[in-house]
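Researcher: Quick test of sequence recovery. Tokens follow.
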């Protein structure tokens, strides 16, 4: 009885427009009341057999949408509000990962707190906005009311039965409380609960600037109009609710004890960009150095400058805060060096290490990070974990998307079914789907690769390739022309097309890598391995690849004024000295090579 009286008075206190300055005594009394009603609710929920944690299921994506609620996530730019807004968005991001994909059986009750659990720092929640004693104060888990508002709004639109709902005591500008479609929550005694006579799926996702709740269910709606919930007694007196603009970061009442408590939070800087990087590309390095702001930071595997490691030789001249992942990178290097150069085991291991690196980088994404610039190999894992939701995303695109890569390899394998390498590995379908979703979400797709840029004409930022400094090249002695194959002998690099194109031609073929298509692959051709001085003797460099993502060897040859013949899949469109040929077209490749050999003979005769 006593606890019931306390509970009612606590709720009335929450609904009272209290403009008086809060005191330590009033806050202590309020905390005692909250503890009392919390204890009571925990006991009640423990004994309630209808409360359960529902599971996520992969199916139901094709069920029709019966209700949708969309609300902006950035609603207040008042002084001192940004930090709390950013914290709110982070809390929504954490909660969305817990709710997205839940399937609630027909007749079962959905409980907000049974599903979310207590919002604590350990679980990833941060300070957001909470209305307390008439003020908007920083509170861990604050801002989750935007989620409960959206859930309530969608449930009403879908005609679900509202089991429990509480209105806010005050209206935060921009919230659904302005439309009287709100539902406040406070762990654990102020909950939102509803149910449906149909099994339904809940989707909770953030876009760059909005929070989206969708409810999916089979069949026709049970209710023709949204169910009218009988108001609680305390709701009857809460029809006229005042707006509140006061918060502990902008009221500047230094005599208030909360001012000093939250002063440090108010001094934090604003929005920032995180650059999450893996292998070094000079094109991306220059782009970042030109676009980074002083408050931004970057994560890279190793300090490339200090260790002189060319794979991680990021300069990042415009970034002052650069963080490293030394231990994980060392383990990755040791493991991958022990793997075979080709095959499914190696490819799967590389994906596993990409996932591990993405997980470590994600720990650096604090609420102030509103934009992420990320290497493509990390993208699907960050997307699957929900870390990119509610943020602007730019992708440093280093390869064809997995789905497009599979398409190209499948096409090549159909042409050359005897190849042991063209069909040796395909990434999991879930990874391809996650990457496609993330690329569709991204703002910009940044790449120097012309073939990749053509796949995304509206989003791509096409950078110029970085040409290495040309090395002096002495004239070779007259003799048989030398063609350099700028890759290992594997099907995806166009080995079969080159073999066919060179059949019967009187040339020397130099191979810039291993022979992985089997012994005797080049039977009938004069072949040898390239040495370190391969550029000196090359009359042409050839790469008719089905897939080529980083054609550095071709760029080196072009910089040395050596003619290059490459497929369009190499992405060198517009580079001087490069002649492009269609992918998989051995006849076109042969024609280009024969024309070049005739020029060489004519030049030799004239000399």
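Model:
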């Amino acid at each position: 009885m006593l606890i019931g009286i306390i509970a009612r008075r606590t709720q009335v206190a929450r609904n009272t427009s209290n403009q008086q300055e809060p005191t330590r005594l009033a806050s202590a009394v309020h905390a005692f009341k909250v503890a009392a009603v919390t204890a009571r609710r925990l006991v009640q929920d423990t004994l309630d057999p209808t409360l359960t944690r529902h599971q996520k299921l992969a199916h139901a994506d094709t069920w029709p949408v019966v209700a949708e609620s969309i609300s902006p996530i950035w609603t207040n730019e008042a002084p001192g509000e940004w930090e709390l807004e950013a914290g709110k968005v982070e809390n929504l991001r954490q909660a969305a990962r817990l709710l997205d994909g839940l399937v609630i059986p027909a007749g079962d009750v959905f409980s907000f707190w049974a599903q979310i659990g207590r919002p604590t720092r350990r679980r990833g929640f941060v300070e957001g906005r909470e209305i307390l004693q008439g003020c908007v104060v920083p509170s861990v888990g604050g801002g989750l009311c935007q989620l409960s508002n959206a859930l309530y709004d969608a449930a009403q639109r879908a005609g679900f039965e509202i089991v429990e709902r509480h209105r806010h005591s005050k209206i935060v500008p921009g919230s659904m409380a302005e439309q009287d479609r709100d539902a406040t929550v406070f762990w654990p005694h102020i909950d939102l609960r509803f149910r449906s006579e149909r099994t339904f799926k809940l989707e909770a996702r953030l876009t760059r600037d909005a929070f989206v709740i969708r409810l999916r269910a089979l069949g026709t709606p049970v209710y023709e109009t949204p169910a009218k919930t009988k108001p609680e007694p305390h709701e009857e007196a809460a029809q006229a609710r005042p707006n509140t603009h006061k918060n502990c970061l902008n009221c500047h009442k230094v005599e208030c004890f909360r001012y000093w408590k939250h002063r440090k939070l108010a001094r934090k800087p604003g929005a920032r960009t995180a650059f999450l990087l893996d292998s070094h590309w000079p094109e991306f390095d220059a782009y970042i150095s030109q676009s980074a702001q002083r408050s931004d930071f970057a994560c890279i595997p190793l300090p490339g400058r200090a260790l002189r490691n060319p794979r991680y030789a990021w300069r990042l001249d415009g970034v002052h805060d650069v963080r490293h992942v030394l231990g994980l990178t060392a383990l990755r290097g040791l493991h991958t060096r022990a793997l075979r150069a080709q095959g499914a085991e190696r490819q799967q291991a590389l994906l596993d290490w990409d996932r591990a690196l993405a997980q470590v980088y994600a720990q650096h994404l604090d609420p102030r990070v509103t934009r992420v610039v990320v290497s493509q190999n990390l993208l699907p894992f960050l997307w699957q974990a929900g870390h990119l939701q509610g943020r602007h995303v730019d992708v440093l695109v280093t390869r064809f998307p997995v789905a497009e890569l599979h398409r190209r390899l499948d096409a090549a394998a159909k042409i050359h079914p005897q190849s042991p390498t063209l069909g040796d590995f395909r990434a999991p379908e879930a990874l391809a789907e996650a990457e496609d979703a993330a690329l569709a979400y991204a703002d910009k797709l940044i790449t120097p690769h012309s073939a990749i840029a053509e796949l995304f004409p509206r989003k791509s930022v096409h950078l110029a390739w970085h040409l290495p400094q040309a090395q002096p090249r002495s004239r070779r002695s007259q003799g048989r022309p030398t063609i350099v194959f700028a890759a290992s002998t594997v099907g995806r690099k166009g080995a079969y097309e080159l073999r066919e194109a060179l059949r019967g031609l009187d040339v020397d073929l130099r191979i810039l890598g291993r022979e992985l298509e089997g012994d005797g692959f080049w039977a009938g051709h004069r072949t040898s391995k390239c040495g370190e001085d391969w550029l000196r003797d090359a009359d042409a460099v050839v790469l008719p690849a089905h897939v080529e993502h980083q054609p550095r060897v071709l760029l080196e040859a072009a910089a040395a004024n050596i003619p290059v013949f490459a497929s369009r899949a190499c992405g060198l469109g517009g580079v001087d000295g490069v002649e492009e040929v269609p992918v998989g077209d051995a006849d076109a490749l042969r024609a280009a090579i024969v024309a070049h050999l005739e020029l060489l003979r004519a030049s030799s005769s004239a000399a």
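The longest strand covers residues 65-72.
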